[in-house]
User: Fold this.
Amino acid sequence: MKKHVVRIVGGDYRRTPIPVIDAAGLRPTPDRVRETLFNWLHHLWAGNFSQKRVLDLFAGSGALGFEAASRGVAHVQMVESNPAAVAALRALKTRLKAEHIRIHAGSAMIVLERLNDTPFDLVMLDPPFDQGWLDRLWDKLPAVLSDDGLLYIESEAPVIAPASFEVLRQSRAGHVHFHLLRFAALQKKVNNRDINESNKLKSGDAQEGLPSSFPFENSESA
Assistant:
């Protein structure tokens, strides 16, 4: 299988090579784009990454998630469905001894539907292009974002976000558009009320054969 590498740009793991498997739709975020993103975050978070929780929903090579871990965030949850990519992520996590990273093998959509623990300060979305992922994800993101949480998106075209998201920064590198948005806390409270009311109506119901939540914090899914 053909492989190449990208490297972590900054932080504790700076210059560490990240193997990139040859898989359809896998596009590691370029070094200069990651550097730009984390400069934005450094400004918005006043350089304080230590209490931040990050969800890398389409981890792929792990370039974004490992970059966040390298910068000193408290927790990184990676989600990836490709078995070969998952194996590569776990191998690098082990090599780095990065205990603040968790890796889940599975569907991004299912993870979003079941995550119900502590929300994330940053969600990173770099899904396969031209598959309509963003349209399917917008209404699921509020449940996993903290008040004023940030959303990073890479896409094939400029993003048109729902009114509940404010575009803070955006730029372009080649054919890739990348954006940093903020989620409105007030909108989240409205959404949560709607969700709670819906849950009351469906109390006693359960998804057949499915646990109520994933064990993200304490173990990794195989």
Observations:
- The radius of gyration is 17 Å.
- Strands lie at 3-7, 17-21, 53-56, 75-80, 101-105, 120-125, 145-155, 165-173, 176-183.
- Residues 142 and 188 are 6 Å apart (CA to CA).
- Confidence is low (pLDDT under 50) at residues 188-219.
